[in-house]
Amino acid sequence: MDTVILQQKFKAPIKAVWEAITLPELMREWYFNVHNFELNPGTVFAFYGDDEHQTYLHSCEILQVAPLRLLEHTWTHPDHSKGRSVLRWELSGIDEAHTLLTLTHSGLESFADAGPEFSPENYEFGWKGIISISLRNFLHDIGKQIFEIDINAPREKVWQKMWSQEGYTAWTSELTAGSYYEGELKAGETVHLLSPDGNGLYSDVIFVQENKLMVLSHIGIIVNGEEQDLDEATEQWTGILESYRLSDNEDGSTHLSLELDTQKEYFEKMNEHFPPAFRKLKEICEQ
After folding, report:
1. Which of 206, 176, 208 is nearest to 193 (CA)?
2. Which of 52, 71, 223, 238 has the most crowded Cβ, counting Cβ within 10 A?
3. How high is the pLDDT of residue 49?
4. What does the pLDDT read at residue 267?
5. Residues in the chain with pLDDT < 50?
6. Of the residues 140, 162, 197, which one is the last residue of a structural domain?
């Protein structure tokens, strides 16, 4: 596999998607902080993978522009490789309210001199995150919320209280009384996050590092204990992430942080319920 091809449907008009991938002030919100970007063939623009530390420099030259339809440019890593690839963004309107993006990244074999970090498989993984999560969230008005708390207990205890069946039901009672989960919290597994009436979410466990990190990707809804097929409403948010991270404080206590992708219409609800849930967890762990 030397070429990555991804397709993603958005509930957004073609003009909104075009602006998201071509206006630097919008690109900064979901993509990278792109410098010297102009929609003219021959324009050379650049950005860093890590803008804060200015590492992983990307240098690109625009090859083709067809407004509202096509953007094609080169993609190089001058600090790491002599290779040259081509990135092609193609838009097609499904209807007035929906757009299909086809992204094609070819020539990835030319980055072999940069080592395994620049493998086509890593590009595919990266583009899925950028297009299917970051851009989708931006266009579908999904934002990121962060909740944090310090708990006077070791990470191992906090982890056990968070993810044991009994502990999970106790601290999430501040979100939904009597909530529980079914399944194994292991990477690659699907779990059901349920309320007592059998309704809830089914979610993929993306990553687990015991006592440190749990990443869930919410896929769809459950009604009366049954996973429901994705409908248009669910497709707006399917794949959103909920990431819990535990770290050590200097005094031996534990810092818990949650990064939560949320539809912005539910921000206020999450702000009401997650802080009390974290305070409940803190109380349980410090007993």
Report:
1. 176
2. 71
3. 84
4. 96
5. none
6. 140
